[in-house]
Structure formats: structure tokens, C-alpha cells
Specification:
It catalyses: a ubiquinone + NADH + 5 H(+)(in) = a ubiquinol + NAD(+) + 4 H(+)(out). The chain is an all-alpha fold. It contains 16 helices and no strands.
């Protein structure tokens, strides 16, 4: 892609995100979401591969439908209440429509069907943007409207997302699809605590984005797209692959790594709110995700090339690891002791 065009699309992506998260009016929020969608489409389809074109088409159709529902929700609320303010969403039909629209944009169950396919058709760095930055504006809209949303509906969608994200990730061999179902599962954790502690939802999103960025940057360094390629990563860059194992376990939420912090706090808050059954259920469902994270870690560090399937090895290996990747890996592993600082 032309560097100037790439700069324009990246700047538009930042602009759309900034407009959405800083707006109080529904039309401005919708405008920012549309700018985001139009900015990411060329980045998805830049390889000109049929799979990439298919992914960009699916992404456009789903996001356009979700944006239409969001605009219709805000218009319905304005028709009945005379308010265009984001925080003044009070009409029941508008609340249901908004929850549906944001769920489609985020990829929450039952509107998750597009997300794994789009990530599979995108490059690693574009998949990182789709899994982290593109989910930030809809998450902020959910936070702003959280007092008006239906707690029971969000609870059901959150548990369904955690269950399906863990269950569907078990039989995948493509790493981008595994990360897509991982994202769906983590969205369930963010949604279940949204009503009771919006600040905790933001902390979970930030730490999830940090850990996911570390994993995608590592996969990009080793040029790894599927499990059979991951099995040969140890012979390329052993230190980076060992760090990848710890980062995957952090994303799974194992103590004493960083990823344990949000799950620990969410379970604690749900217990305080009297939702012990929901806390127990989502904690047990996270074991499904732990299984395929352990499988990824096993393939990356324990399975050596002579014992794995035949795979064409690269004759020239790029062993340069940039500072950003190293910093992200470090933060995604060792932030748990700093949790009192994060929470203040």
C-alpha cells in the first residue's frame, strides 16, 4: 500500500475513534463510527487476496447494519424523549436496539458470526486493530449508556459469549481464529461487569488489549499463522517463543501473571453484588479458553520440529525484535504486583 494512503487511513482511524469517545451527541458518535469503518476497510483488503476482499465485504455489511440500528435507536429515543444526548437514553425500545447494535459491532454472541471470518482474512497487524482499537469506541458507548441498559440481557449475552468463545476455540488450527474466539470470550468478561463497575470494564479492556498486542506482535515477528508453523517457532527465536508462552498464559488469566488481575477483580465484584452463580459459571467457562491457550503454549515451546508435522522451514530467519514487542510482552506478564497502582 502507498505510504501516503496508509497514513491517511491510519489518521482517519484515530480521528474516528477520538470523535466517538469524546462526543455527547448521537449523530457525532455515529459519524465517528462510520469514519472508523471506512478507514479500516482498505487496510483489511490491502493484500488484494480473494479472502481479504471477502473479509472486508463481510465487515462492511455487518458494521453498516449495526450503524443503522444505532442511528435508528437514537432517533427513536429522540422521538419519544426529545433528547439526543448519549447519557439520556431512557426509552426501552431504544435500549434494546442500542444493545443489539453495539453487540454487532463488538462481536458479542449471538452476533459473533462475522468476527472470526474477518480476522482470518486479514493480516496479523490488521487483525490486531480489529481485535483491540476497533472495539474501543463501541465499548465507550456501552459505558456511557450502562445505567439505561438491561442487566439480565447483558448477563445472558456475557455468559453466552464466554461459553461460545471457549468452546469454539477448542477445535481451531488457525491462530487468528483462535484469537478471534479469545476476543469473544474476553468480551463476555467485560460485559458481565459493565453495569456494576464500568471502571473495571475499562481496566479489563486495557489489559486485554495490551496482552493481545504482545501476542500479535510476537506472531508477526515469527511470521506464524497456524499451529503447524508455531511448532517450528522455537528453533527460530527461542527466547521470544518462551515469552510468548508466558503471554498466552497471562491472556488465559493464570496467576501470578497480569491477565489474572481483571478476572480476579470481576469475580470479586460479582460476588459483592450477590451474583455468585454468574461468577462461578463464567469462572468455570474460562477453563475452556485455558485449554486452547495451553495448547498454543505447548505447540510453541514443548513440541520441537522433529516431533511435529512436516513443515517447510524458512531458510532465512529475521531475528530482529523491536523495542515495542519486548515492552508489550514485559507489561503483559509482570503488571500484577502493580495492581494497587492501577486501581487508584
Amino acid at each position: 500500500m502507498n505510504p501516503q494512503a496508509k497514513l491517511i487511513f491510519s489518521t482517519s482511524l484515530l480521528l474516528g475513534t477520538t470523535i466517538t469517545i469524546s462526543s455527547n451527541h448521537w449523530v457525532m458518535a455515529w459519524t465517528g463510527l462510520e469514519i472508523n469503518t471506512l478507514s479500516i476497510l482498505p487496510l483489511i483488503s490491502k493484500s488484494h487476496h480473494p479472502r481479504a476482499i471477502e473479509a472486508s465485504t463481510k465487515y462492511f455489511l455487518v458494521q453498516a447494519t449495526a450503524s443503522t440500528l444505532l442511528l435508528f435507536s437514537s432517533m427513536t429515543n429522540a422521538w419519544y424523549t426529545g433528547q439526543w444526548d448519549i447519557t439520556q437514553l431512557s426509552h426501552p425500545v431504544s435500549c434494546i436496539l442500542l444493545t443489539t447494535a453495539i453487540s454487532m459491532k463488538l462481536g458479542l454472541v449471538p452476533f459473533h458470526f462475522w468476527f472470526p471470518e474477518v480476522l482470518q482474512g486479514s493480516s496479523l497487524m490488521t487483525s490486531l486493530l480489529l481485535a483491540t482499537m476497533m472495539k474501543f469506541p463501541p465499548t465507550i458507548l456501552l459505558l456511557l449508556t450502562s445505567p439505561s441498559l438491561n442487566p439480565t440481557l447483558l448477563l445472558m449475552m456475557a455468559i453466552a459469549s464466554a461459553a461460545l468463545g471457549g468452546w469454539m476455540g477448542l477445535n481451531q488450527t488457525q491462530i487468528r481464529k483462535i484469537m478471534a474466539f479469545s476476543s469473544i470470550s474476553h468480551l463476555g468478561w467485560m460485559t458481565i461487569i459493565l453495569i456494576y463497575s464500568p471502571k473495571l470494564t475499562l481496566i479489563t479492556f486495557y489489559l486485554y488489549s495490551l496482552t493481545t498486542a504482545a501476542i500479535f506482535c510476537t506472531l508477526n515477528c515469527t511470521n506464524t499463522l497456524k499451529l503447524s508453523t508455531l511448532m517450528t517457532a522455537w528453533s527460530k527465536i527461542p527466547a521470544l517463543t518462551a515469552a510468548l508462552m508466558l503471554t498466552l498464559l497471562s491472556l488465559a488469566g493464570l496467576p501470578p501473571l497480569t491477565g489474572f488481575l481483571p478476572k480476579w477483580l470481576i469475580i470479586q465484584e460479582l460476588t459483592k453484588q450477590g451474583l455468585t452463580t454468574a461468577a462461578t459459571t463464567i469462572a468455570l467457562l474460562s477453563l475452556l479458553g485455558l485449554f486452547f491457550y495451553l495448547r498454543l503454549a505447548y505447540c510453541a515451546t514443548i513440541t520441537l520440529p522433529p516431533n511435529s508435522v512436516n513443515h517447510m522451514k524458512q531458510w532465512q530467519i529475521n531475528k530482529s525484535i523491536n523495542t515495542l514487542t519486548s515492552t508489550l510482552i514485559l507489561l503483559s506478564i509482570v503488571l500484577l504486583p502493580m495492581s494497587p497502582t492501577i486501581l487508584t
